[in-house]
Amino acid sequence: MRMRTSYNEGDVFLIPMKDGRFAVCQVVCALKGRFKKAFSFGVMSIQRDETERLEDGDFLVCSFGQRKSNVIFTSPKLLKDGTWRIIGNIPLTPTKKELQVFQCSGEVYNGDEYIRMIPPDEYKQYISLSVAGFELVQNHLLEMSTNK
To answer: pTM (2 decimals)?
Structure first.
């Protein structure tokens, strides 16, 4: 039985991919308030094995239709149950901290903190909180590893 794991901003973790490789990821937003059923992360690299290298790096870009993003929102379930193993923590750089600002239904947040309402024409200026299921996360990882 796996232990329940807590997670924090900056935590680095491994996602086992369907093709046998591993995505090295970093928690950007460890949401605890009204969005506690989601968290956001960036992918630092895709590697062939579970070697634990704690090296900071830029996030790979992921496509969401016409939009591109450096972060993916998903459920923390697999992080909490230990399926996605946390291997360390690297404090977020100022650039990565900027990725904590997102919009949801016209409201802008910095992590759990509400900032302000925005008009629809500003939506595209912000990352959108749209939660990807685990299957979609796998698809994004495969796409990122081929688009290097």
So the answer is: 0.92
